[in-house]
Amino acid sequence: KAGVTQTPRYLIKTRGQQVTLSCSPISGHRSVSWYQQTPGQGLQFLFEYFSETQRNKGNFPGRFSGRQFSNSRSEMNVSTLELGDSALYLCASSLAASVGNTIYFGEGSWLTVV
Amino acid sequence: GQSLEQPSEVTAVEGAIVQINCTYQTSGFYGLSWYQQHDGGAPTFLSYNGLDGLEETGRFSSFLSRSDSYGYLLLQELQMKDSASYFCAVRSSGSARQLTFGSGTQLTVLP
Fold first, then answer.
1. Which of A111, A104, A112 is closest to A1 using CA atoms?
2. B93 near A CB under 8 A
3. Average pLDDT score over chain A
4. Is A25 helix (H, G, I), strand (E, B) or coil?
5. pLDDT of B60-83, one tens digit each?
6. What is the pLDDT of residue B95?
7. B43 shares contact with chain A (CB less than 8 Å)
8. Cβ density class A84-113: b for 16+ within 10 Å, e for less
9. Is residue A100's pLDDT more than 70?
10. Pairwise CA distance, residues B79 & B38, whole Å
């Protein structure tokens, strides 16, 4: 079956703009989590959604937000972009929320803020 | 919260065995897992230890000791394609139950 799909794969934005990234989980998976990855850094947890509800949130400012739709697809939004927001944003899906250690990542969205 | 420490870089030659260590601090967790990420690619799940001891999956093995707050990933018969970043991860059993990753170990396999 199809894996986790993220769009767009690459994008360039200007400081102050906002961006919306999309994630379609593996069919049947109801949990979606988002991570930010910067060069030399690990994967920093952003948030996790299950059944359209945010279950966990990482230590990021309020400019970072997300949502999940009834079909389990998820979007994350970053407003008032800063140069430091340049990163690879990874979405991962799993069957259930907040349990287990096996999650399946998409290829990510590369965001460059100039 | 949780914190995990891994070496930032490890280098080994083809055919060799390499061990990547992960020490963690967490009040309680479900288990330790490992992910592999090639440059420009998505992290992929490698191994999971829910209980203490050794888990073997082909050339890869993973070990967990809860009493020592320590685990490792063992890669045998190294191949060039094993050059990648390796991340350990834990999911806390507390109220904040997100999956937390270490900062990753860049493995370079030399010919």
1. A104
2. no
3. 92
4. coil
5. 999 999 999 999 999 999 999 999
6. 64
7. yes
8. ebbbbbbbbbbeebbebbebbbbbbbbbeb
9. no
10. 13
Strands (E), chain B: 3-5, 9-13, 18-25, 29-37, 44-49, 53-57, 60-65, 70-75, 84-92, 99-101, 105-110
- Is B3 within 8 Å of chain A by CB? no
Mean pLDDT check: name the lowest of A4-13, A37-46, A62-71: A37-46
The neighbour count for residue B90, using CB atoms within 10 Å, is 26
Given CB atoms, is B102 within the 8 Å cutoff of chain A? yes
Q: Do A103 and B87 touch (CB under 8 A)?
A: no
Q: For residue B33, give how far its alpha carbon lies from the nearest alpha carbon of chain A (Å).
A: 6
* Structure tokens, B51: 């209980």
Q: What angle do CA B2, A112, A102 make, to 5 degrees?
A: 35
Hey, are the CB atoms on B103 and A98 less than 8 Å from each other?
A: no
Taking Cα atoms as reference points, which of B38, B42, B30 lies closest to residue A88?
B42
Please report, as a single letter, which amino acid is at residue A52.
Answer: E
